Amino acid sequence: MITTTGILATAGVAGGLGRAKGATANEQRKPLPRLPIGMNLSGIADYDPGFPFRNLMWGARPWLTTNLECCGPWDTEQIAHFELDANGYPLEAPIRVPASSEWQVPFTVLPNVRRPGRYVLLHEGTGSFAGVMNTTVLSAQPGRVLLDMKHNPTLLEGIVITRSKRGDHVRNIRIVAIEDEKADLAANPFLPEFLDFCRSFHCLRFMDWAVTNGSLEEEWGRRKRPDFYTMVGISGDPDGTWGPPPSAFDYRFSGGVAIEVMLELANMLGVAPWLCIPHRASDEYIAEYARLTRAKLDPRLPIYLEYSNELWNWGFIQSHWMLRSTLAGDMVKAKGVQPWEDEGTRAGTAHPERIGALFRRAFAIWEREWTGRDRARLVRACTVQHAYIDAARRTAEWCARNGGADVLAPGGYFGPGEVEYAAWAAKGAKLSADDVIADMRRVLKRDTMPWTRAQAGIAQVYGLGYAVYEGGQHLQPANQEELPYNPALAAAQVNPGMYDLYVEDLRLHQEIGCRLFCAYSSVSQQGTRYGSWGAKASYLQPLAQAPKMRALLECNTQRVATSRPGGRAAYE
After folding, report:
1. Which uninterrupted H or E stretch holds 6?
2. Positive or negative, the Cα torsion across 263, 264, 265, 270?
3. Is the overall model pTM greater than 0.90, yes or no?
């Protein structure tokens, strides 16, 4: 048994965190830390400023329905009556449904985060379209519709299929800025500003792209393909313990972005992908995932492999599934661990061991597929909870004794605890950004430093490398509520002190030998009650206004370009 005290002693990291404000002259002259930085990519949504694709349809919501001729509710909820092809396009519109005397047509909401102006809707098949909300049809001819779109983040954009001919139904819809009308989306579906944003990072984690939290993915044959009309995903709880189970329509949207698109981005930039296996995935799914990745990924690139995301986080569906899972229970029972508090009710116990067993199941399947030279490219990530040292040790120990892992991967966040929340509530609207920065400086020393050193000790004991799956600031109001002090949390995101906090967090991780620090996350809305996760508020935000991003770039080690088949650069 390895005690937490022993782990702290084993870590043996010299030095402490330098002060970001009010530091001595010697501390201020410290060279910047240098370590490989990765990036978590923000999820795909029509309202998210991190939307990365040229084709707006890849950010379209699942189909809604409306009355063709008359007024009515926002969504008449008749989509179940529409027949859809394999790529999600309705085979016919309009249609009659039993519950309504009105003809029904499908519509969708589109991303509203690009620049305003003219866009072109291109399609195959026979049909017609109308703009809805703030999208206007300017002209139409077979296969091409000219649109005017406002792209005001406070308003919605959308289209409705007013007619689609059965036998030659509307399909393969692409909506692009007019200057991209001739662009080869198959060769490059990504916005140039998105590619520029990603180019410096050593690794891209696709957890949110894949809608890993609450994933519905289970059978390989039902996974999302690149030809599906949208890369937006739906999550849910098939067991129905957190509400109604997903419908057959919902299952069509599971998985988020197609795996091929993720691998295409990694290949295009020469960046290692960090992939997350869905928690409900069958053995066949996991094996086919491994085969597809081995076949499609540039053979020069490594891959970080993770099973699900934060299986210890009780706010996520997959954590409750893990604790009820007979699959996990049987695996730990076979090794002599009691899996149930009560056999009758299936109340699970030993969650750190269950997590380790599920990790090793996925790793073992990939190990059978990634053999020879490719095996050296596979980095098996044993992800653990940063603050829960004993649980992390138990999961790492399970992996080490049952086939191994390559890196221990805790978080690398700094964020408020009970002390900070109480002080912020007392100050209310008088809380300032400088107050928040000062509190986070104390949090780095009080929480992030000892947790990180303890985790480094675990990694050392079990012969693992060290990587951070997510890290950075974790500023949210208590219980994600609208509170008087929230403006100070938003202002802290662009406060110069935030740069210093990131530098000191990265310095700590450099000192303990971290081989990869994946920041969370790329580009997102700032100042919401759910957090300000993005390193930038938009791809085009100046670095001078984005201290989080500036710190990540200035502390990043440079990727070295090497030759690659086809003449494009690969990076190591």
Report:
1. helix 4-11
2. positive
3. yes
